[in-house]
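User: Hey, my collaborator sent me this sequence without any context and asked if I could get a structure. I don't really work with proteins. Can you help?
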Amino acid sequence: MKIKFCSKFLFLVAITYNLHPATLFSGDFSASAKGTTTAGFLKLGASARPAALGEAYTAMADEADAVYWNPAALNLVRGRSASFTHALYVESTAFDYAAYAQKLSPTCALGMSIQYFSAGSLTETDITGTDIGTFSPNDAAATLGYAHEFSGYSFGLSLKYINTSVIESAQTFAADAGFLTPGYWDGRLRLGASVSNAGGTLTFEEESERLPLIARLGSALKLSEKWMAGIDFGFPIDNDPFIALGTEYTLPINQSSSLRGRLGANSRTWGDIDGLSGISTGLGFEYGKFGVDYALLPFGDLGWTHRFSLSWNF
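Assistant: No problem. I've predicted the 3D structure and written it out in structure-token form, which is a compact way to encode the shape of the chain:
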């Protein structure tokens, strides 16, 4: 019964949202397209672990945050998984993300998430420059996704509701799609692909702006029992393609706990920000079913950003 339900849901999302090549590959995918999209908070990522890995996570995702990075990877969740992330950005801005995933059957999984970005309180002025009050820009998105496995290959789709508010607000829907291979080379190598934020536009004062669509190709390689590495190629609609690299080493402490060290690099911001950027590092601590993760990311002259995540796999 659960398998039939998953199949019907995937079919319904695909038909309802009409994912076709013209939707996925419109746009010039180059630096000349900078500033042509809106809802930039959708590009902030989710969870401290992938942030520390330079966002090389398309094929490495295996927890609740897979609903953001690659919905097909929801099938790697064992039982149930939940996570919460809080990220501190420059000035008074902050980003929060919560996700839940559950295995419904050996071939089907469900995932859902909520993300929220706050720009803090800003001063509003009239056309003469006189202060007339304050406003608090914010953005939010809610996502529901499913993954289904066929002969070892996993396919995922999700539907996303987006709301963004400056002084006025706008809403739209978008869709994500993902693909994940079974393990090759004695299960050590896995390949993945995803497309995020396909379709939908946000309209402010009769002017419509497209969402920051991005396609990713990624791989995850198990170098040893304790050492993982990943590489992603990203193709954003509003910027040049980029490469992301990440590695993670697990150091067992005892039978129920372990410490993970992570290092990553991402070429997306190289040349865009003065100072150190595009690298990341972090730590993870696991005790039984619980995990705590931290990531540190420099943003050049804008300062350093910190990301904290809590996870529970049960």
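In plain terms: Confidence is low (pLDDT under 50) at residues 1-27. You can pass these tokens on to your collaborator as they are.
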